[in-house]
Design the sequence.
């Protein structure tokens, strides 16, 4: 495969990181840091790279995002079918992500300090981003053995606020493995519905991962329109 000269500043972060790793240089940081590091190493603002190296990086990203979404779907299906045990504790309303417990012990501890809630899926969804959490209370007859319970309805915005972010170009972001593991644990703890988790997980993809999944969605939508259009 012939090699061509490319301006280092025009290369994507995955390519920059690969080139830095190949040279046994630090590959963490934002794009300006990666560009400067590679320019200092090469002594030039251009570098010879084969088209094959760039395409391989794109393929790796597509495979990572595709596998990630398949894993999310598999986890939710397993939870729904009872193949993954759900903790026998009622979930709690979501809290702002800034104060959300970030480790499993903290999440477990939070379960002992709350009022029981039952989760139900909303019957209708409004436009994404315009929905606020709602708390519905049942009108139940008070008895000596039964107290009125509250029914919390998780909305997409709630779940999005709790899930971590996955950005393959951001070293601070969760890795694909951490993203999947966190989704699995939170879905069990909060008893989320499958459609909510899949919707929210896609919303938490950033950078090239989001662009790739958006492009895939647009492609499926166009194919569906083509199938539904009247034949001439």
Sequence:
């Amino acid at each position: 495969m012939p090699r061509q000269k490319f301006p280092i500043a025009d290369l994507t972060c995955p390519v920059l990181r690969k080139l830095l790793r190949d040279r046994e240089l630090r590959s963490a940081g934002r794009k300006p840091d990666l560009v400067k590091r590679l320019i200092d190493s090469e002594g030039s603002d251009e570098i010879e790279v084969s088209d094959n190296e760039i395409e391989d990086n794109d393929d790796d990203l597509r495979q990572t995002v595709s596998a990630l979404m398949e894993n999310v779907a598999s986890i939710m299906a397993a939870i729904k079918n009872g193949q993954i045990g759900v903790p026998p504790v009622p979930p709690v309303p979501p809290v702002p992500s800034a104060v959300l417990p970030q480790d499993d012990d903290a999440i477990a501890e939070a379960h002992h300090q709350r009022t029981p809630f039952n989760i139900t899926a909303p019957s209708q969804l409004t436009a994404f981003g315009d929905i606020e959490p709602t708390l519905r209370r049942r009108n139940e007859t008070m008895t000596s053995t039964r107290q009125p319970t509250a029914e919390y309805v998780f909305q997409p915005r709630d779940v999005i606020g709790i899930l971590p972010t996955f950005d393959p170009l951001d070293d601070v972001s969760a890795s694909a493995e951490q993203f999947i593991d966190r989704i699995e644990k939170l879905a069990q703890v909060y008893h989320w519905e499958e459609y909510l988790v899949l919707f929210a997980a896609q919303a938490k993809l950033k950078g090239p991962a989001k662009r790739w999944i958006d492009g895939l969605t647009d492609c499926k939508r166009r194919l569906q329109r083509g199938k539904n259009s009247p034949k001439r």
About this structure: Residues 3-58 form one domain. The chain has eight helices and five strands. The radius of gyration is 23 Å. Residues 187 and 197 are 7 Å apart (CA to CA).
